[in-house]
Amino acid sequence: MKINVKKSLGQNFIFDKNILIKISSFIKSNKDTTIIEVGPGPGTLTTYLQQKSFKKLLLIEKDDRLIGNLNNEFQEKNIKIIHHDALNYNYQQSENNNSIIVGNLPFNIATELLYIWTKIDNWPPVQTKMVLMFQKEVANRIIAIPNNKSYGKLSVVMQSRYKIKKLLDVPAKVFSPPPKVDGTVLEFIPHNEFNSVHIDKIDQIAKIAFSQRRKKIKNNLKDYLSILDRLEIDVNLRAENLSVENYYSIARLT
């Protein structure tokens, strides 16, 4: 199938069988699992996902040009093609219980999608796991640890809700067309360690703290000095020196 990619949709497809097999191998499913593939494109990864055990396989695709091919290629009763913008789909509906989200995400909306899946009121989500492709630089920010220049608000927010593991680096040359940057596949498993505080509060504290990351927190978090004192957090530290648990603790007392 000849496909002219749409830059506006951030499309970079993968046809390399070895990479597709590796990504598919990270999805462990059974007859009760719903697999949700975001942005299946030409269905190259879908071909391997359909060989797995699952209750349902949902394919969410926005591009009008690709829907017909997906409908022709995947006609099984338990495979459903959803012609929908991934940014507006309701992932948390009860029929998606025990689901795994997988996708070579469009790079231009990958972070936005991740926030949509993370900033929900009722935690944990119905998804038990996510296996997702990001730009390598974005992936490095997501998994960064304190005292690292890549560590920031994105790291804090995501790590406050998931155990995150790097699974695979994917060189740019594997994509079609090749992007300017490499990709990285990450695994996200929801945890409940910090869910007594709403994610928006953790996000807000981290956003303020990292607003001027070279400044000490006694400046950026000047409205929270009494809380920092109560928690015995050194106000001469910078935002990148605080742990995810520190941010959770500050948010819990606000």
How do the strands and helices of this protein lay out in sequence?
Blueprint: E1 13-14, H1 17-25, E2 34-38, H2 46-49, E3 56-61, H3 64-73, E4 79-83, E5 99-104, H4 110-118, E6 127-135, H5 136-143, H6 153-159, E7 162-170, E8 175-176, E9 183-190, H7 199-209, H8 217-220, H9 225-230, H10 244-252
Parallel strand pairs: 2-3, 2-5, 3-4, 5-6
Antiparallel strand pairs: 1-8, 6-9, 7-9
DSSP helix fraction: 25-40%
Structural class: alpha/beta
Strand order of the largest sheet: 4-3-2-5-6-9-7
Shape: elongated
Q: Which fold name corresponds to the CATH topology of the largest domain? A: Rossmann fold
Topology as H/E string? EHEHEHEEHEHHEEEHHHH
| Distance, first to last CA | 55 Å
What's the tally of helices?
10
Oligomerization category of the chains in this entry: single chain
The level-1 CATH class of the largest domain: Alpha Beta
Q: How many domains make up the 3D coordinates?
A: 2
> Radius of gyration, Cα only, in angstroms?
20 Å
* CATH-level-4 superfamily name of the largest domain: Vaccinia Virus protein VP39
Summarize the main sheet.
7 strands, mixed
| Low-confidence blocks of residues | none
Percent strand:
15-25%
Mean pLDDT across all amino acids: 94
